[in-house]
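# step 3/5: fold
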Amino acid sequence: MTSTVHLGPGPGSFTDLSFAEIEAVARRGARVELTPAALDALGRGRATVDKLAAAPTPSYGISTGFGALATRHIDPASRAALQRSLIRSHAAGMGDLVEPEVVRALMLLRLKTLATGYTGVRPVVAETMAALLNHGVTPAVREYGSLGCSGDLAPLAHVALVLMGEGEVIGGDGKPAEAGPVLAECGIAPLVLEPKEGLALINGTDGMLGMLVLALRDFTRLLKLADLTAAMSVEAQLGTDRVFLPELQAIRPHPGQAASAANLLTLLRDSGVVASHRGPDCNRVQDAYSLRCAPQVAGAARDTLAYATLVAERELASVVDNPVVLPDEDRVESNGNFHGAPVAFVLDFLAIAAAEVGSIAERRTDRMLDVARSHGLPPFLADDPGVDSGLMIAQYTQAALVCDNKRLANPASVDSIPSSAMQEDHVSMGWSAARKLRTALDNLARILTIELVTAARALELRAPLKPACGTAAAIAVLRQRGVGGPGPDRYLSIELRAAEDAVRDGAVLAAVEEAVGALR
């Protein structure tokens, strides 16, 4: 685990922050520390803001109102009230609480941008944000409020409100608690925001980007799992592994397809089940698409993931704020870099990929349960078909999840609704795209879990034929976790949830990779 993440500008003036570091802070409570270079950059950026604040010429975000009210010049005596009012009014979220890992990710990413000095905040603002993260103080952010343009305004405003000692945090019981006493208990002094600082705290794509990075980490693991469950289904349905040979992938050179096919060959290596029908007596000509085309679909998802990774890396190398401070030129410039379109598009693209990976997995599951297509397996893998229903309704659950993901694949980023009296007349809806992607990936984990449980039972029904080493390792983990094999009907939900836990905590993939080596 990364114990401390250091934030500060590097050779290219931008903070170098990896996906692994973001996940460590968001999910495992890693500490953050501002480097001396960050504190120096913050000081230089702030000097520019102070100079412009003292000038008679209005500067947006420093001595003016915001959005459609940007034409009003604000008297110096009212500028502290301006910042306070901005945060209070923009902390307008509603709905359920956003998950702590998402809030911590968006806080870290906003802090990353602050640390470059381009936003013009004082060092104490960045230091207080770091203190919240290091003390485990998580602001209570609500589900709805961001349109993904001018940044994730409402979610970030709820964070900024806590920096001011106001608003709510997520208490130890998971419920909202008053922020002021929690800050006092941690020895964190509330901020009185100065010119430019309120806007700098809320004008970024940090929420949608944080969710994108976490989704990339999760989807990468799920695609390895998808290759595993596909291999188990191919094996259980007496399919062939020859369609995954590298020479066949080379004549259609998509890198994701090649990686997925290589995983399938690795997972099916030395399978007694596959070997049992490899000879001249086999009358099967070719397998159904859901088996034969597994690497084409999962591979396309991998290539989508690669593109989304590139976009996330570019966004991490960006300073997203408006206006942005250019300390070397002693000026502040308005810009459109807060628009979330680049991030929103790939969030939607990933939701499409997740829907398709789940859809083909459900088709493989259904084939194992249908006596007309399963090549000798009992109906629904039931012990006494008719008396027992076997895994019939597990497939219903899987189908419901697949259909939900099809709905979630409808893009949010093609929608837009004008706001701020038509000043902000086109928005990205990137926050909404991120929220639905999180749900889609949760659904995908459950879809693949059901395929895993089904294929494991089907493979055991092929005894005395022995499965491959890798697929056998997956079955062993399920049995260790209390997921039973073939037999009379029993309470199925509890077993499916136990299998899901083994998927989510990484036990299944860890056992498989220990048996066959690292998957691609």
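# step 4/5: annotate
The chain has a mean pLDDT of 93.
# step 5/5: archive (pending)
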